[in-house]
Design a protein that fits this description.
The protein contains nine helices and nine strands. By secondary structure, it is of the alpha/beta class. Strands 3-2-1-4-6-8-9 form a seven-stranded parallel beta sheet, with helices on both faces. Helix 1 crosses helix 9 and helix 3 packs across helix 5.
Length: 277
Amino acid sequence: MNRLANKVALITGAGRGIGAAIALAFAREGAAVVLAELDIETAQRTARDIEAACKASGAGSANGASAASAHAAGAKVLAVQTDVTQSASVQHAVREAEKAFGAVDILVNNAGINVFCDPLTMTDDDWRRCFAVDLDGVWNGCRAVLPGMVERGSGSIVNIASTHAFKIIPGCFPYPVAKHGVIGLTRALGIEYAPRNVRVNAIAPGYIETQLTHDWWNGQPDPAAAKQATLDLQPMKRIGRPEEVAMTAVFLASDEAPFINASCITVDGGRSALYHD
């Protein structure tokens, strides 16, 4: 329960889904966690949930670094309202993290949105909205923490990409274009800063049971049939759980993966390895 002891981690989009699961997993492993989230009320609820879960399990230790932090024994958690499309907002989140807990050792760029359009009817606003969150947002996070990591000669960045980064599903444009960019950014920064002992890696989740997935099912004419069709596509006949992505993030962020850099780990139950159904 101490794989991330004495580490400070900032996770974007940590209010729910995969981001919330990563924040909880990190806290249970001893990290101080900062939930950088646009919806601050959701982030605050998740922070309280993490506090309660860690208190119940006895993980971590008490810390009174900030009035907004979780003060109960077992968790060090801070929620900060953050718009990843705005560089200044992300830099503010990093400053708040440093003020509460110290230098940021780990960044998880998790915030993202689904923008699925027909290429020829997509609006300019759809294009810009997708890239502003799914690619610019990742760069804004990296740019905010890299100077400190480079100066200290250590740090781990984990970018949440997607299997859309290397597999194309018709009707999902331009989301996969942005996610291809996340992989390129991961590789380029990983190589650029490897001499300074700063690692940059990515995780490519497949189908994961988040609220976004349920929202998509519920938006179909027959939600039950849509869900079953998704499950039937999976080699393991189920989809992934957010905590299964979270534990991969723990590994990449920890000192257990010191020679993994500029890489992407796929978490999809083998779906992307399947040649045909």
